[in-house]
Description:
Number of helices: 7
Distance between the termini: 55 Å
CATH class: Mainly Beta
Order of helices and strands: EHEHEHHEEEEEEEHHH
Shape: globular
CATH superfamily: q2cbj1_9rhob like domain
Radius of gyration: 18 Å
Bound molecules: 2-oxoglutaric acid
Structural class: alpha+beta
Number of strands: 10
CATH topology: Jelly Rolls
Amino acid sequence: MDLQxxxxxKPGPMTEMDRFIFECYGYIIIEDVLTPDEVQETLEATKRVxxxxxxxxxxxxxxxxxxxxxxxKLIDHxxxxxxxxxxxxxxxxxxxxxxxxxxxxxxSVGWHQxxxxxxEFRELGYPTPLLQLRVSFNLTDQSEDFMGNMMMIPGSxxxxxxxxxxxxxxVYASPIQQIIRAKPGSVLIFHNGVYHSPMPxxxxxxxxxxxxxxxxxxxxxxxRDATDPEFLERTTPMRRALMGDYERPDIPFGGGYKGxxxxxxxxEELIASTMTM
Length: 277
Ligand SMILES: O=C(O)CCC(=O)C(=O)O
């Protein structure tokens, strides 16, 4: 019996129903975001990023958007971007971007919540606050099991209890888990508190996912200390602002954060955003 119902929503604005589903599950999925040609272009870029570097388990390389235009272009893709705006009320940065490969015939099962072992996000309050909103593009086929699919436990971002330690290395950790069976070009968006793990990849081809992680502006970046100045110079105003490079990096809780250049951002909002200490 397979009764799983994936939380699939439409691209574009975050509807009330999308928000309700995200609240309940902690994740949503948008199908067919990229065309087959776009998938191919992006996949080729991710392969270049990992060329000569793949070892026998999950490999993640950060900041590849700085030198791969196909990865840069997805940062603010209109299929998902309005949903990030809605969930963060327009105030967020790209905290990291991980180009990820699960090599053919490898496995890295490890159920976890995103955050930091240095001080877990769940210690900050209940429910665990939204601090890393991950947008994952599937670039290879994951429409059947054991293709390196993401596996998720719906609603676990609201659980007061942690997933029992003894099951965290198991593929089938819980009867309520879901296996995300999705075609290349689909996107999964999830809350840092949701327990998740990659499924083993038993296929003959490497599995590639591209993850973009959005956070409140003051969260320290995890794939770079600072963004490449040449990238900042040549990218769009929106992407430059999304990089979260403060004019005054020494006072990230005070002035220097200008907000994102959305058309609806008023002059008063910009001024207010630089005044709070
Ligand atoms: O790409 C993947 O399979 C998932 C990686 C992951 O779970 C993580 O980075 O937290």
